[in-house]
């Protein structure tokens, strides 16, 4: 333990741990990243005559709805995992975190199937502006899900080794914040890509 | 964390190469960014030769350049227009993203900020190390683009679409390198904000923070919120280039008499918006650390408190907020509704108010002071008129009607170079002379410092001032051969003194480089506080050990308590108990 970190964990000027403040700052920059892309989508969608919106049947709304629930469910599991480690119940923490990871994989598998299906139907990244935005936005989101899964596996490993205690489990909380953010991005992407196409 | 503080001998590689110590990382940033600045300077020399003597072989080393650079760049020492375009784009990119920003934020921010707030290190030392190494990789990737077929990026440092989308592969490398560099900046920004918010020493309240720390904090917020938007823009441009999308490509774009095979429907103006949404806050990222440094140097060397500390801090925060709503003043000529143009004219002129307020405070700080003319003070004093010229020549560019005339001429180049080169860069060099004793425990040589100063400042004015004259005569930027347009001919002769001035800047850097390395060994040894300054970085040994302070300092007063009546010394350090 360096004194820098010891200093951090004992007291900070704001009372918020460094890690938590750091992850919020990171999420602020992520908001600007997705915000930039989504604004580009809004501008071209409202302004470009070449933006052809596929009919809802082609978009596979039921599958995407299922995926939405998978992510929301995973967020709930994340909250329960944090609650478990706050009580010091490592096995329960492990089970819930395992479910989070499983949900992440489920989301990716469904997404892979969706991509394959859409590509077959002619919605490719270069076919049309809508396709370009669809693959760019969801693709970047998928990268975030993959990153989240790697993070969760790491947190799970550390947790099962007994590195987190009811008083010291900051990283679980920070990883959770990130995961909720990834969930939130999908909750915004889902309506603007799948539902707004009557 | 495995790096123990106060742990005797560390292996060389861990101590100097993969170090997590903010001071080592700061010095790594310092050396790397000065190296990139030198690379950018050399590119500038090549360009100035081409502008002064269009299509003539480069003197003395022309054959050598032809051999090194190859036939697709400078055959027989004569610059091809394509290579001129590459140099233009890469000079801008390197100077801004790999030179001045890493110098102001990465080097001085890293080294000085934790010391000034009395912290043992940054909040996330490992993230700090990663940020440096990612930056270095990004820099190498950026430079490597010269080796690609067709050469480096050549659509200007602004990479306007659709030209950048149809450009040779070097542009793809530019996009990738930008994403890498932006990632590095983000990590740095997170670290700076958390460190400033959370790791201040006891008693270091907001109103006791040195101006430099405030400047770094506002800069970090700008980096954090503005850079991701360019990341988004660069990502879309990358996809346009490699994945066949058409975010920036309009329908039926004709390239070389054939229709570009894309679905189309995109909008080139979209790129301009995404780019300038970053690049205007970026201007203040270049400027604020410099202002912070000048404030520190002036307070120390006038031996009196800064004039208007609160006003300066407030102005910096206001600049931070306003810089997000001025970006479209770069796009008046791209075409926009009059009402929208009016909005951006208004915000642009509003942001000049806090900038002028800061400059005025710095100027009034000199009044009634007993000024010490040491090397850092020379640089800090030069910053004031130079930034004044840069800022005031920006006003005609902020008004849409005058901007339409001046847009894309050398006037614009002159304006922003005055802000960044004899403005920011001069202040940053002054910062090195000021903090060098803290970094290495020795003073830099004064005579060499003065030679460096005069050659640089004379050279810079010689290059940039005639640009206003050429620009107002209508000479356009980004032309490899200005003589191709007859209206440029009456002002073309200015390019010769400008070329000579460029050579003076180049020569002027050698005393500096020599001084830097020679003083490491031979410089006069100094103690903790050679300038008799008040801020906390002067309360620890020079150079500070790992962990910085022997005992966490306690702060008792504001940062600039100089010449307090009734005290024997004319300075009252922040950590000295009453």
Name the helicity range of chain B. 55-70%
In N-to-C order, the SSE pattern of chain A is HHHHHHH
Beta-strand percentage range of chain B: under 5%
| Low-pLDDT regions of chain B | 1-7
List keywords for this structure.
heterodimer; A: 198 residues; mainly alpha; Four Helix Bundle (Hemerythrin (Met), subunit A); disordered N terminus; B: 578 residues; Cytochrome C Oxidase, Chain A; 17 helices; 2 strands
Plain-language structure description:
- The complex is a heterodimer of chains A (198) and B (578).
- Chain A is built from 7 helices and no strands.
- Chain A has helices at residues 3-10, 18-47, 56-59, 61-86, 90-120, 129-160, 170-195.
- In chain A, α2 (18-47) packs antiparallel against α6 (129-160) and α6 packs antiparallel against α7 (170-195).
- Chain B has a single domain (12-539), classed as Cytochrome C Oxidase, Chain A (Up-down Bundle).
- Chain B has helices at 12-17, 22-52, 62-69, 81-116, 125-144, 170-198, 211-242, 268-302, 309-322, 338-365, 375-392, 395-398, 400-406, 410-440, 446-472, 489-492, 495-522; strands at 254-255, 258-259.
- In chain B, strands 1-2 form a two-stranded antiparallel ribbon.
- In chain B, β1 (254-255) and β2 form a beta hairpin.
- The chains are: A mainly alpha (198), B mainly alpha (578).
- At the A-B interface, α1, α2 and α6 of A face α6, α7 and α8 of B.
